[in-house]
Amino acid sequence: MPKSSNKARQAQAQQAPSDLFKAAADLYLDIDSAGIIRQASSGLQDMPAMGQDWIGRNWLDTVTSESRIKVQEMLTEAKQTGRPTRWRHINHVLKDQTEFPVLYSLAQSPSDDRLTAIGRDLRSMASLQSRLLQAQQMLEQDYLRMRSIENQYRTLFDLIRDPILMIEGRHGRILESNKASQAFFGLSGGQLLDKKLETLVSAPSLGAFNQVLREVDGSGRSGQASLRFGQHKQKSTVHVAHLRHENETAFLLRIDTASQSNGQVVDNHLLQETLSLMTDGLVITDRRGIILHANPAFAQIIHSPHHGQVLGEPISRWLGRANTDFQVLINGLQQGGVVRLFSTQLISDAGAAIPAEISGISLPQDKEPLFAFTIRDTGRRLQPQPSQASGLTRSHEDLSDLVGRMPLKEIVGETVDLIEKLCIEAALKLTKNNRASAADMLGLSRQSLYVKMRRFGLDRGDLQ
Predict the structure, then answer these.
(1) What residues make up the domain containing 38?
(2) pLDDT at 259
(3) Confidence at residue 265, expressed as pLDDT on a 0 to 100 scale
(4) Phi, psi of 230 (to 5 degrees)
(5) CATH number of the domain residue 286 falls in
(6) In this structure, which long-range contacts are made by residues 61-64, counting pairs with CB atoms below 8 Å and at least 24 apart in sequence?
(7) What is the mean pLDDT of the segment spanning 342-365?
(8) How many domains does the chain have?
(9) pLDDT digits (tens, 9 = 90+) for 232-286
(10) Cβ atoms 344, 319 nearer than 8 A
(11) Sheet of 353-363: strands edge to edge?
(12) Exposure pattern of 187-225 as b/e (b: 16+ CB <10 Å)?
């Protein structure tokens, strides 16, 4: 009896490590000295029967071809050293021919020649590795695509005959230059790089250069200026565009050398300066009324922070009777080509009504005409003070001037008030300021006459 109990305890002692390995491992294999799987246990919740179809098969036959060498090396190492082998990545082949990655360590039992394989599930790691590999491949593809685009951009950049420069918005340093610009300035690409463009512009043109940069930066739209560069006697037209470079403001400059080579340089800087200093607003629109150009005076009239902010907006946005006024102006320009002193009201950005006069002309173009308007604020115009005798009457011209400035109802109301006041004054004069007689003459009650006199300010003293 004691001998049988000792054997049972020895068997339990030998079984305890095996049970511990089964509980701790994702996959447990019991392999004999010939490499045949005698027992398999799975700790995977999603695949509890994993390895059961391998029992009785050689371990080498359950893995992929590239994993056979690793399995053979692990079997040899475990038998020769008697110590647990290092962890190796082994891929099993399942029934559906998919691969199942497992990280194995193999150890030999100290009591016999059996081998125990402890496996860890590598599917999550394999998934991460696959995603990482895909991300790396995508990055490499994007990098190659960007390199290709950059090469194409550089080739086109250098093929352009006009000098092209990209300059930094903050300090005006040159970031990029094409071959034409290098030939234009007589400097290499390395010499132009990081050089401030203002050092290449002649001193008299610096003002125009800085002004066009401010306008393009403020409006976000393209602009141009006529500049003279240090080593060139004639001025060149420089076209400036706004762009973003590495999250910073930058400008793309194209120097028009065609006019310079033909000797037909048109210096419009004086004209631009004149228009920018005009006290009357100047607006150029297309046939739909979209503003293409506006001077600072127009922005000041409508209380806009910057004249560049009105570009691309319809001019009818600031007209008192938006579509009606604009249609009247357009009809006049299409019929006669000129509109003079059209009276209306502008509505400022603050909502204030501003009396104004608008004149316009049609500018014929190849595709469609453009319209130019001058806008004058008449609110601060000094009105003549009429005499007491004639201040109560309005001529036909006076009433005509009110059309467009006031609604018809208000014009009629003001005219009726003037007529009533004139009649009351005439009756009081005829009756020597006898109010009872004046009321009888006008067909009014005395109470009604007193109300109207107070309304028109005629009760403050006797009329002479």
Answers:
(1) 2-121
(2) 54
(3) 41
(4) -45, -50
(5) 3.30.450.20
(6) 62/37, 62/92, 62/93, 63/90, 63/91, 63/92, 63/93, 64/91, 64/92, 64/93, 64/99
(7) 85
(8) 4
(9) 777 888 888 888 777 788 888 888 876 554 444 444 566 777 777 888 889 998 8
(10) yes
(11) 291-294, 281-285, 370-377, 353-363, 338-347
(12) beeeebeebebbebbeeebeebbebbbebbeebeeebbb
183 & 262 share domain: yes
The sign one gets for the Cα dihedral 331, 334, 335, 339 is positive
What pLDDT was estimated at residue 72?
Answer: 92
Among 163, 271, 284, CA closest to 208: 271
Let me know if residue 216 belongs to a domain.
Answer: yes
- pLDDT for 264: 42
Which of 271, 292, 318 is a domain's end point?
271
Instruction: Report d(CA 456, CA 464) in Å as an integer.
Output: 17
- pLDDT given for residue 460 in this prediction: 67
Question: Are 161 and 180 spatial neighbours (Cβ–Cβ below 8 Å)?
Answer: yes
- Give yes or no for a contact between 121 and 129, defined as CB atoms under 8 angstroms apart: no
Q: Which of 278, 270, 285, 275 is CA-nearest to residue 376?
A: 278
Cα of first residue to Cα of last residue in the chain, in angstroms, is: 152
Which residue among 271, 293, 321 closes a domain? 271
Residues 138-161 have pLDDT tens digits of 999 988 888 888 888 888 888 888
Write down the residue that tokens 């922005």 correspond to.
299
pLDDT per residue over 296-308, tens digit each?
888 888 888 887 7
Q: At a CB cut-off of 8 Å and minimum separation 6, what does 2 contact? A: none
